[in-house]
Amino acid sequence: MTVKQRLDQIREKIEVAASRAGRNPDEIKLVAVSKKQSLDKIKDVLDEGILDFGESRVQELRDKYDSFEQEINWHMIGHLQRNKVKYLARMDKCKLIHSVDSLRLAKKINKRANMEDRQMNVLIQVNVAEDENKYGLMSEEVIDFLTEVSSFEYMKVKGLMTIAPYVDDPEEVRPYFRKLRELAVKIEAEKIPGVEMKELSMGMSNDLEVAIEEGATIVRVGSAIFGPRNYNK
Which residue numbers in the chain have pLDDT < 70? Predict the structure, then answer.
């Protein structure tokens, strides 16, 4: 199957899921997860009109950053170490960090963004499934956390992100996506200055339709676009 055929399938899934939820599919951003993918494969996806790409490692993002003539919106979607923030702060095309999960990391992002005289947009990663193998704040910690970082001038919270457990039946993870959306609604009601809940980054190749039905504004899709990933590279 070609990249175009895969993307056509994904776009159709997005449209159908959005329709079921009474939503406009144009509200949903498709981020192509390009970790471990070659520049040629990324170029094929770019040529099909996808401009948003997600990387899990800062070093890999740095290696790919200036490889394309087209304008690309890079997303940092993996766990972010504080000592790597300085590199992201220098990358104007890094539009969104999805994985802020601690106050120490938030402080580092704000500091580095200040040094580069820019605003860095972030999502707060929430471990709604309380999975000990995943990063993220617990749901009950998020409002206090946001209150603390709301005064940060150079780091701006745009919403929430979660990674659901991998399951064969996507319906099993619907409650986690719903819980993230309900948390976002609760946060909005708090009217925390400087904090927005515009984005919900949730849903991947196997569960994106359920995520969209529950309110996802960003879906992160890798293997369903690129095909099986080669982890031996």
Answer: 229-233
